[in-house]
Write a structure and sequence with these properties.
single chain, two-stranded antiparallel sheet, 6 helices, 69% helix, mainly alpha, Arp2/3 complex 21 kDa subunit ARPC3
Length: 169
């Protein structure tokens, strides 16, 4: 059982708040492509920071909390949007968790894996609701955008972590 401290709760809350702010900011810089809103994924910075400052389990809780709370700021909040969001979160966490377990992987690699997995997870959920094989034409674009979004996010976290003195205990 993990020890819960005021410092840990404060760090988690701070990361959650920043994640929601970044998500709202992403709404304004997203690019519409064929009915799909392409976002850079910068709100995932907080999930990666949480993974290294707290634990992977805390990062999982943060990702779901951020997804749920950020959904309240979405202009098109509905059941399908929530399913798409959580489909991306689940696959992203699986991808990041796998590479995080290897311990030898760099943060950028973990971030790229999470971003690409997130996009694929969202596409799988969309295909469940709209079974149109033409949606698979988005896959190369989603993989490329996930790669670059994950690269930028991982780079930001890699530069930020040394500035933070030690993991929160």
């Amino acid at each position: 059982m993990q020890k819960i401290t005021v410092r840990k709760i404060t760090t988690f809350s701070f990361l959650l708040g920043i994640g929601i702010i970044l998500h709202v900011f992403e709404i304004y810089i997203s690019v519409p492509i064929g009915g799909y809103m392409l976002k850079p994924g910068i709100s995932n910075i907080v999930v990666l920071l949480c993974m290294y400052l707290l634990s992977f389990h805390d990062a999982v809780f943060l990702a779901f909390s951020r997804g749920l709370l950020s959904g309240l700021f979405e202009p098109s909040l509905n059941g399908i949007t929530i399913c798409i969001t959580f489909g991306g979160i689940v696959l992203s966490l699986i991808g990041m968790g796998f590479f995080h377990m290897l311990r030898s992987q760099r943060i950028v690699t973990i971030s790229i894996a999470g971003a690409i997995a997130h996009n694929i997870g969202q596409l799988i959920v969309v295909l469940f609701f709209i079974p149109d094989k033409y949606l698979l034409y988005y896959l190369p674009l989603l993989i490329i955008s996930g790669f670059f979004g994950g690269l930028i996010t991982g780079w930001i976290v890699t530069l930020s972590l040394p500035k933070i003195k030690q993991p929160v205990t």
